[in-house]
Amino acid sequence: MNSKSFHHALTVREDLCRGCTRCMRNCPTEAIRLSHGKAHVNPDRCVDCGQCMDACPYGAIVVEQDDFEKIFSYNQRIAILPSVFIGQFADDIPENYIYTALRDIGFTDIYEAEFGVDILKTIGNRFSTYADDKPVISTYCPAIVRLIQIKYPSLVKHLNLLRPPVEITAMYIRNKLIDRQIPPEDIGIFYVTPCAAKIASIKSPENPDHHEIFTGVINMDYLYNLVQKSIAKNKKLLAKTARFTPIPPLTPEACMWSLTAGESSTVPGRTLAIDEIHNVIEFLERLENDEITNIDFLELRSCAEGCAGGVLAPGNRFLAKERLTHRSQHMREITPEQQTMIRRQASYLVKHIKKERIEAKSAYQLDDDIGAALKKMDRYLEIKKALPGIDCGLCGAPSCHALAEDIAKGHATVSQCVVLRLRSITQRDDIHKVWGDTLDR
Amino acid sequence: MNQSFSIPAGDFSHAGQAASEIKRLLKQLNIPPKVIKRVVVALYEAEVNVVAHSFGGSISCTITPEHIDIVVSDCGPGISDIELAMSEGYSTASSEVREMGFGAGMGLPNIKNNSDSLDISSSEQGTSIHMRVNFKEHTP
After folding, report:
1. In chain B, whose CA is at the least distance from the CA of A405?
2. Residue A259: pLDDT above 60?
3. Which long-range contacts (CB under 8 A, 24 or more apart) does A390-398 make?
4. Whether pLDDT at A435 is above 70
5. Domain shared by A220 and A330, yes or no
6. pLDDT tier at A172 (50, 70, 90 boundaries)?
7. Is A358 a domain residue?
8. How many A×B Cβ pairs under 8 Å?
9. Separation CA A283–CA A292 (nearest Å)
10. Structural domain boundaries of chain B?
11. Class of the B2-134 domain?
């Protein structure tokens, strides 16, 4: 229905999928169904949160990846590195080893994604929010933005239209290089992503300007392997020569920004930070009912522990968070020289600081026509009553409610319910031992 | 299409369940978000009223392609002065109820503001509120 405007980074590899139902039962938006023993994703409902990938024991859910060699088509090869990348490595690997390895791999320059936080702070003195309604909801996490678009259309006007720091960083770098007379076609800006949702958002036709901001995306787990390999190979040499660190260094605030409460703690007023998508959904239901009146700003993140818990982050989220916390304690406030450097780009950045308006794309209607939808709803309610309410998933839908909905829409049949079929089989007594009266309801 | 819910008295932790359920159904019907919000706010306030002031009651919703009709009835003790109860800030809520964050005197006024028609009848045997919200969006 709306699938054309969404790009998805997650796909199912049918050769590996065993139809085990784990992804389907973990999907927070009921986007997955099984048919012919394989998982199928409804593109209108998928928000690329990656819960399915985490749940899959067979590696059958994969994230698309740009060809790494693509970076070498550009003279200027800039890596935009989220600070959680550093958190993936053990303490015995110094930061400058990591940065030097990234240069050895082929990047000409490295910026941290959260530098955008320091840019915004410098040009605005404080963090502005642009939204029609309170509480303002952060748009930092693209999975959350999509979740609100498809499931909570009335909350779209709460979304902050301020560009997230990573976009500000990329725009800053590009404009700075253009100021230095570097031809635009020589500039390659590559974002290293900890999750699938960011890929989906960067490549989405909904956000056409993202193609101008980012040249490509590199998956964090892939780059982590390249860096580990390079460090292992050159350890002796690195001990003597590694001294490259990215310029400018982050402030403590920026370093912690992508972790839970990193953003909300910098926003004035009463704020709340919620992580993990199921928790977020529980809260949005309440917000939508107008039950929450006293909050000014909401930081919502799809992953537990924020970006440290991204599906493409190879390390442990808690260790990554600890390393960043430790790292931030050695960071300093921004220097006047850095501020002067940032202010040179200020007028350009201020002009582009807001995103385009975000549209709702409801994905839960039974039918676009209300008369037809009402008929389907009568059917849905009737079928739901007849189904056992066990949510076993054997029918290929994540819950009895979802199967009832699918049947009402004409996408499934009652005979798919395995439990209802067990009712009529001959060895009833054996079944009764397990399920008691459940099947008689 | 009909849906009914029963509301036990005094159970504040579950007030809002009927509103949430109806909200989900209205989304499935592709009703405009603004209209859904009006229904949810009106229904939630009505639920809280039954929980806070009555001996328990029930909600019955009828949905047609044009509108939703909601009848909320309880089994007493009734509203002694409906006109006074309709004025913003007037409340008969007990101090316990107020301490829980309810009873600000906005219940009935909020229901009125969020519905297109509202009928209230009340006696000591119980109160019945009939509200209707049209699906066609208003042009203010």
Report:
1. B28
2. yes
3. A390/A419, A390/A438, A391/A25, A392/A418, A392/A419, A393/A21, A393/A24, A393/A25, A393/A34, A394/A21, A394/A418, A394/A419, A396/A24, A396/A33, A396/A34, A396/A35, A397/A24, A397/A33, A398/A24, A398/A25, A398/A27, A398/A30, A398/A32, A398/A33
4. no
5. yes
6. very high
7. no
8. 60
9. 9
10. 2-134
11. alpha beta
- List of chain B residues whose C-beta atoms are within 8 Å of the C-beta of residue A289: 16, 19-20, 23, 40-41, 44
Residue A360 is assigned to a structural domain of this protein: no
Question: pLDDT-based confidence at A438, cuts 50/70/90?
Answer: low
Supply φ then ψ for residue A65, to 5 degrees.
-145, 135
Chain A CB contacts of B33 under 8 Å are 153-154, 360
* pLDDT digit string, tens, across residues A383-415: 999 999 999 999 999 999 999 999 999 999 999
* Host domain of residue A186: 68-351
Domain assignment present for A356: no
Tell me the residues of B at the A interface, defined by beta carbons under 8 Å apart. 1, 3, 16, 19-20, 23, 25, 27-31, 33-34, 36-37, 40-41, 44, 63-65, 135
| Domain match, A239 and A262 both | yes
CB contact under 8 A, A367 and B3: no
pLDDT tens digits for A148-165?
Answer: 999 999 999 999 999 999
What's the CATH number where A410 sits?
1.10.15.40
CB atoms B3 and A365 under 8 Å: no
A153 touches chain B (CB under 8 A): yes
Distance from the Cα of B124 to chain A's closest Cα (Å) equals 30
The residue from A33, A62, A91 where one domain ends is A62
For A150, which residue in chain B has the nearest alpha carbon? B27
CATH of the domain at A28: 3.30.70.20
For the question of an ipTM over 0.85, the answer is: no
